[in-house]
Amino acid sequence: MEWVIVGLIGLCFGSFVSMASYRLPREESIIAKRSHCPKCSHKLSFFDLWPVLSWILSRGKCRHCRVSISVRYPVTEIVCAGLLLCVYSQLGLTIHSIVLMLFSIALLTMLIADLETTLIPDEIHLFLIPLGVMYHWNLGTPASQLIVCVILSGGLGLLLHYGYYWVRGFHGLGFGDVKFLFVVGVWLASANQLPAYLFAIGLLGIVIGAVWKFISQEPRFPFAPALAVSLWIMVLWPASSDLFWGFLRQWLI
User: Fold this and answer.
1) Whole-structure pTM value
2) For residue 60, how many other CB atoms are within 10 A of its CB?
3) How many angstroms from the chain centroid is the CA of residue 240?
4) Distance CA 17, CA 12 (A)
5) Among the listed residues 189, 181, 193, 190, the one whose alpha carbon sits nearest the alpha carbon of residue 240
6) Using an 8 Å Cβ cutoff, are 146 and 136 in contact?
7) What is the spatial distance between Cα 62 and Cα 69, in angstroms, rounded to a whole number?
8) Rounded distance, CA 108 to CA 21, Å?
9) Across the 253 residues of the chain, what is the mean pLDDT of every consecutive 10-residue run?
10) Phi, then psi, of 68 in degrees rounded to 5
11) What φ, ψ does residue 103 adopt, rounded to 5°?
12) CA dihedral 125, 127, 130, 135 (to 10 degrees)
């Protein structure tokens, strides 16, 4: 029964992610403004807001203007439910898992916002930082370890941002990505995990960049998906960094 409840909650939060990822980059309120059709601006009723089901019953069209509604809405809801169920499968239903579910929701919002607008809203950084502190306070992580990792991760982001500009004449890493690397330091809180994280984002960045260029024919691509997916994996499975160090040792030997 808990699996069903977590899945339904994930679908509902997926609806929130769709709304927040659209509004935050456009500096629209996610609280004061009611949900509405992006085409005709008609305010949506209770029956229009059932996750996935409303989209299926309306055959992917607005009930008022009959304009097609993007499939990204039900897909986002399903992906969000999948993320929450994945956290639940690892940790059950605890305070610790609830924090990681909120973490997953924030990362998904950031990923979609960056894919669609190439912007990472500051509100997501401001949400993830105290949430990360809470996460490590619950784990008993020493504050000194947390500070060192934030300095290393954020400093590396600044170095990549300004260093690339100094060498090539343009910024290879957006400042939103730099700010997110400070967030990464809060969540990893271990200098041992940082090289493994950098390797993961480099590998994912290559894959995502190749796919992005093939689809859009644009030379620059959003980097937040690589940052978000790598961090999610490293936080949920901290032992994944051991795979990197094991591979590195074998390669060096």
Assistant:
1) 0.87
2) 14
3) 19
4) 9
5) 193
6) yes
7) 6
8) 9
9) 90 91 86 68 65 74 72 91 95 92 96 89 93 90 88 85 68 76 88 85 85 75 86 88 69 62
10) -60, 140
11) -60, -45
12) -100
